[in-house]
Amino acid sequence: MAYFRRTGVTTFDPTEHVGGAWRTDEQHVAPSLGLLAHLVETDRDERGRSDLAVTRLSYDIWGTYPLREVDTRLTVLRAGRTVELVEAELTCGDRRAITVRAWLAQTSDTTALAGGAPPPVTGPQETPAWDPATVWPGGFIESIDVRRALVEPGRGTVWVRTDHALVEDEDASPLARAAGLLDAANGMSVRAHPREVAFPNLDLTAHLHRSPRGDWVGLDTTVTFGPTGAGLTQAVVHDEHGAVGALAQSLVVRPI
Predict the structure, then answer these.
(1) How crowded is the C-beta side of 193, counted as CA atoms within 13 Å?
(2) Are 22 and 200 in contact (CB under 8 A)?
(3) Residue closest to 142 by CA, chosen among 15, 233, 35
(4) 0.90 cut: is pTM over it?
């Protein structure tokens, strides 16, 4: 079980588990976000820079794209001894679909200085199971295991994990696997039912103060709809050991 199968040096075929939620004949962006993070880390390791850790992933989503083969491209925009900026792009057919710019920083031992992280949230084992298929269709939604504690519409804590590999027969890091689940923030603690209101996100930016560990990704989420058609999803990102960072997604809000 995997989201993609490699078909060439830079090309990948999506499986049925990538099926979208807004439209099931399109790709859900979540696995693609994980795929691009995986390629950033793979390229880093191949260049002998495993001393660098990803500290920011900033994705721009250029539009929808069908369940067809995708191509990828990676460029080191700013090489350096202690920090690097890397850009990766995913295209489908002749259309650009997603671009990510990733900052990587050299790791060092700052244990004595660590502090200031948000408090932990109730863990996945103590959070009630929830079936996202009651709200969303699609292969990706069917592929994830969700725990949810909803405080009110648009506010709640969600834990997400998957047994599916990002790429068939390839090992991906916990960071890349987590990146492939981050987009769930905008769909698991909704303010309005997606059959009544559309609220797709144009982007996703995640800042990390440490790399995630384990399979579960926790999203302590707040969704805001503004008065002029814009919205914002924000979440503190957790693993089972505590907070690892934060994310934000800009939304386009349209009544259906």
Answers:
(1) 6
(2) yes
(3) 15
(4) yes
